[in-house]
Design brief:
With 409 residues, the chain is mainly α. Helix content is 73%, strand content 0%. It has helices at 3-20, 27-43, 47-64, 68-96, 117-124, 140-155, 157-206, 210-236, 242-247, 249-258, 261-274, 280-293, 296-313, 320-334, 344-356, 371-396. The protein is globular.
Length: 409
């Protein structure tokens, strides 16, 4: 059975169990959440060593073939263009479809939050390179260490050939372990389905956020079914671009129901290699970079959420200068979320409200109940960029082997 079929079946069983079993928001849901968290950790258990071994070998081979710079340039271009375009699409959609106001909350502002940019920059160069392998959340230091190791291996292959062989073998071993955890993650999706229905059905039944959720769903479908397939058809001359969307299903489900970009990265690496046929030296280099930096879905949902907040507080429109500032802030901060694999939209929204001021400091509280669902759509859109972007880069770099649908994982 295909991986996405296992995940879909588990989610459906979770939904059914949530309606049938006598569960509530008490101890029962806590136990199920614990089970889900345990399998999320299992899914990321071998991610750091896999990335280190694979990226080291990948960078070495890309340098040898003189393809590293062109690969990175394409990743940067797709990341920037997709983030800017999706933010503009989100702002245009919220003006095209008038959303109802959200009742003003009387809650007070919680403690101030920060992206801790300076700390994250310093953590890129720790006092010992091995410290970068001790954090399974912030993956950019791991990639940087692996890049240095790969460049060191490429400097003199006659000396590093044994080391590269060992690293490549360890990478394949880690990939086998990852595949095992991706299979047993099915049980985690059963827990996700139960938690989602029990925790969030009140949000749907209230009706306050229904139109906002429908708007996000519509935008996701437009991006998934129309925009990315058409771009792939034009750039890659792909006759059936929707087959790439088919390979994204497991990644989309993982992103939406877990909200965790690192877990989604683990699933995406498996599908990019086994289903899309992207060569390992390209796959395990580009997919992590898109996971860390390509957060166009987060920027889109942040911009939409803030405009909804402003309209809920006041009937006055937003001047163009403020609109550009909102868009620019959403775009720039989305590039700085590498250390925040989940809840990025809520984090940026809190900072955006504080920076905007003018009485909107507590505005993010209006959307707090629906924020898990908003973040889920953000993660799902980001997973599309991760997969389609990686395929486009691999195709243009001629590092992709065509596979039949029946051979997809």
């Amino acid at each position: 059975m295909k991986l996405w079929m296992k995940y879909t079946a588990a989610i459906a069983l979770g939904f059914l169990a949530a309606f049938v079993l006598p569960l509530s928001l008490g101890k029962g849901i806590d136990v199920i959440s614990f089970v889900g968290d345990m399998f999320v950790r299992g899914g990321m258990y071998v991610l750091v060593p896999l990335l280190f071994f694979s990226v080291t070998v990948g960078v070495c081979e890309l340098l040898e073939s003189k393809a590293l710079v062109s690969t990175l340039v394409r990743v940067v271009l797709i990341t920037v263009i997709s983030t800017v375009a999706f933010t503009a699409l989100g702002i245009a959609s919220v003006y095209l479809f008038k959303l109802p106001r959200i009742p003003i909350s009387v809650d007070r502002v919680t403690d101030a939050v920060s992206l801790e940019i300076s700390e994250n920059i310093l953590s890129l160069i720790p006092t010992s390179a091995f410290k970068s392998l001790s954090d399974g959340v912030y993956l950019l230091p791991v990639l940087l260490f692996a890049c240095f190791a790969g460049m060191g291996c490429a400097a003199d292959r006659s000396v590093s050939k044994p080391a590269v062989t060992v690293l490549d073998s360890l990478s394949r071993v880690c990939f086998s372990i990852l595949s095992f955890f991706m299979d047993i993650l099915t049980i985690g999706f059963l827990a996700f389905g139960i938690v989602w229905i029990i925790s969030y059905r009140s949000i749907f039944s209230s009706g306050l956020y229904t139109q906002l959720i429908l708007l996000l769903l519509g935008l996701f479908l437009v991006i998934a079914v129309i925009i990315y397939p058409l771009i792939t058809m034009l750039i890659c001359k792909e006759k059936n671009p929707w087959r790439i969307l088919y390979t994204c299903i497991a990644s989309i489900l993982t992103a939406f129901f877990s909200g965790n970009t690192n877990l989604t990265l683990a699933v995406s690496i498996k599908h990019a290699y086994n289903s899309l046929g992207i060569k390992r030296r390209c796959c395990e280099t580009t997919v992590p970079l898109f996971s860390i930096f390509a957060r166009g879905g987060t920027a889109l949902t942040t911009a939409i959420s803030f405009i909804v907040i402003v309209r809920s507080y006041s009937s006055l429109g937003i001047v163009m200068s403020d609109l550009l500032w909102i868009a620019g802030f959403s775009i720039l901060t989305s590039f700085l979320l590498g250390a925040i694999p989940s809840g990025g939209t809520y984090m940026i929204l809190m900072i955006l409200c504080a920076r905007y001021g003018r009485g909107f400091e507590a505005g993010y509280l209006l959307l707090k109940p629906a924020m898990p669902i908003i973040c889920a759509f953000a993660a799902a859109i980001d997973s599309l960029t991760m997969m389609f972007g990686s395929y486009i880069v691999a195709n243009r770099q001629k590092m992709c082997i065509q596979k039949q649908l029946k051979d997809f994982a």
